[in-house]
Amino acid sequence: MSLPDFRDTGMSKKLLNKLVPELEQAREKMGRKLRFMEVCGTHTVAISKSGVRSLLAPYVDLISGPGCPVCVTDQSDIDHMIAFAGSEDVIVTTFGDMMKVPGSTSNLFQERANGADVRVVYSASESVDIAIKHPDKRVVFLGVGFETTSPGVALAILWAEKQKIGNFFVYSANKLTPPAVNVLLQDPDHRIDGFLLPGNVSVVVGREGWMDVEKANMPAVIGGFEPVDLLSSLYLLTEEMSKGRRQVVNNYKRVVKEEGNTKAAALLGEVFSPCEMAWRGIGAFPESGLRIHHRYERYDAALQIPVDKPVTKLPRGCQCGEIIKGKATPFECKLFGRACTPQNPIGPCMVSGEGSCSTFYTYERHQHKQQPLSV
Ligand code: SF4
Questions:
Q1: Does ligand 1 have an atom closer than 6 angstroms to the CB of 330?
Q2: What InterPro entries does its record include (predicted)?
């Protein structure tokens, strides 16, 4: 099948006609709507944009988990970057999405307006170029992202090492997705019936990377991002649940291998080591972050550039933490669409184009009244 086939309306309708009775049956058996969680911002957007969420709303709550790297970056990490930006000889580089994420006292966009040298880049390697052009400055790249983005950061560090660049640093807030899913599963009140697992992360970790989900007896399907991918994955997930099968199904075989991308995994293993890391809304938990390995610690901004950070204060009234855990929807936040909009975001879920609040604001705000998740 080619890409247009995965966007085919006829095929999507056929799948929908198969899926709805299956969901109806499952809803009847459970005595309530189902709850499936996706842990990928790209899925959040695809589900909203395609209309799949609203089409299936009578049968299933499709809830978003910790899948947007901007949203899960802990506020203390944002504060740390703002503190770097306050150093005279530091150039801060970051992805555009991070510029407007509110810290406790400011954001990087405001810091730039106040005179700090903060630059938007498209890759970590671009930051190495900036370091080469400015040998009198220290360039700190804010590393955010999951298994798909982190190999690029690892490559930039290796490239800087090869070229003996001494003024390039990374502040790593890079994270690993499977441990976050496991932490959600350990919560006795998790209210999740199945996981739609991210196809992009799975390209790196493979189906094998999700074995803890299988051990936790939770139905899960690895899915792609086109309408046919989404509907067929949700069909398989419902089927797994109804038939009591508990294996991770790979429904994205055109790109995801059983063992994943071993080269990318080896690259991550060379440059990073797993560490405890704080996730917004979830807190700190072991082996969920990527710390720069001691072999490359001269590139670790957290170690090499001491700064004073302000006391971290979370935005009042913002429910990003509950949304990230799948315990609330953006519509339940009193600030949604009123005090908090993409133009004036109060929490990170409204900043990134893949954040739940921003996605709901863009695609669904006119379709829904304020309503909580079904119970
Ligand atoms: S609408 Fe804004 S304030 Fe409310 S949870 Fe989302 S980001 Fe936070």
A1: yes
A2: Hyd_form_HypD, HypD_1, HypD_2_sf
How many whole angstroms separate alpha carbon 99 and alpha carbon 166?
25
Spell out the residues 6+ positions from residue 327 whose beta carbon is closer than 8 angstroms to its own.
191, 373
* Residue 282: φ, ψ to 5°: -105, -35
SS3 for 267? Answer: helix
**pLDDT for 153-196, tens place per residue?**
999 999 999 999 999 999 999 999 999 999 999 998 888 999 99
Q: Where do the structural domains in the chain lie, given as residue ranges?
A: 71-176+260-304
Nearest CA to ligand 1 atom 6: 357
For a pocket test of ligand 1, which of 323, 340, 359, 370 has the largest count of ligand atoms closer than 8 A to its C-beta? 340
DSSP 282-303: TEEEEEEEEEEPGGGGGGBHHH
Q: Tens of pLDDT along 325-341?
A: 999 999 999 999 999 99
Positions of the chain with pLDDT under 70: 368-375
Residue 320 near ligand 1, beta carbon < 6 Å:
yes
Chain centroid to CA 307: 27
Superfamily grouping for domain 71-176+260-304: HypD, alpha/beta domain 2 (3.40.50.11740)
Crossing angle of the two packed helices 41-49 and 356-363, in degrees rounded to 10: 10
Q: In angstroms, what is the C-alpha Rg of the chain?
A: 21
Ligand 1 close to Cβ of residue 335 (< 6 A): yes
